[in-house]
Amino acid sequence: MSIVEIQNVSITYHRKSTPTVANVDASFEAGTITALVGPNGAGKSTLLKSVADVVDFDGEVMIDGAPLRSYSRREKVKQVAFVAQHGNANSELLARQVVELSRMASKGPFARQTDEDHEAISHAVEHADVAHLMDRTWNTLSGGEQQRVQLARAISQSAKVLLLDEPTNHLDIHHQFRLMGQLRHLATDHNVCVIVAMHDLGLASRYCDQIVLLEDGELVKSGAPHEVFTPERLMSVFGIDAEITTVGGHLDLAVNSAVPNWKHHHEPKEGLAH
């Protein structure tokens, strides 16, 4: 059973005449990783934000069988954790405090941390490999370090759904692969539904169970990586000449070149793959 269902979701930002996301349907299961991919302006981050309930949208987002908008703020924190592309934590806070605040979001303003809170925070800090950063202030952290602390914050919520917007953007290649491995562990071993908006098609094809391909705010195709990533579709949507092989059980996507004189054409929309 799907834990997240996006039903006919459309999003139009103020003063825009055309929707950024138009009539998208998609479903996401617990214990899996899904990548939202597409060219710049495809609507990846915007669609992700609808599941985080941080943008206004038409249609419905269902979380664990109930409308997202029916949850109270405290209930929502237990369901969904969101790692934004750019962290906005107070620059004077210690990294440790940034992580701890996630546990307080589902409690009253004067609640004390419980043993369960301490255990969740400790697990998150260890899992995200940020113990050495905990006593530093936020404004002394690099972009990549901030991203990893934000991941620890999200993990400590112990939510059923983890959303990440371009999480590898500020990371070096070692930490990109390490992050995706950490997400794989959360999905496989803790049954978390992980949804990631990302540009790196290679990482998406290697680590993700499902790909949701967007173009101009519309769903082109969703399904397993080998169903979505074909040379013809990659050329049409992204303007790249790519070879696709299977290595060690994983799809390997090698880009040979950008297609000369490529002009963007709309890929026929195939709807939701089952």
Automatic annotation (TrEMBL):
Lineage: superkingdom: Bacteria
Assigned keywords, A-Z: ATP-binding, Nucleotide-binding, Translocase, Transport
Domain ABC transporter intervals: 4-241
Hydrolase in keyword set: no
Single Gene Ontology MF annotation: ATP binding
InterPro entries: AAA+_ATPase (IPR003593), ABC_transporter-like_ATP-bd (IPR003439), ABC_transporter-like_CS (IPR017871), P-loop_NTPase (IPR027417)
Keyword Nucleotide-binding carried by entry: yes
Protein name listed in UniProt: ABC transporter ATP-binding protein
Native source organism of the sequence: Candidatus Corynebacterium intestinavium
Phylogenetic placement of the source organism: Bacteria, Bacillati, Actinomycetota, Actinomycetes, Mycobacteriales
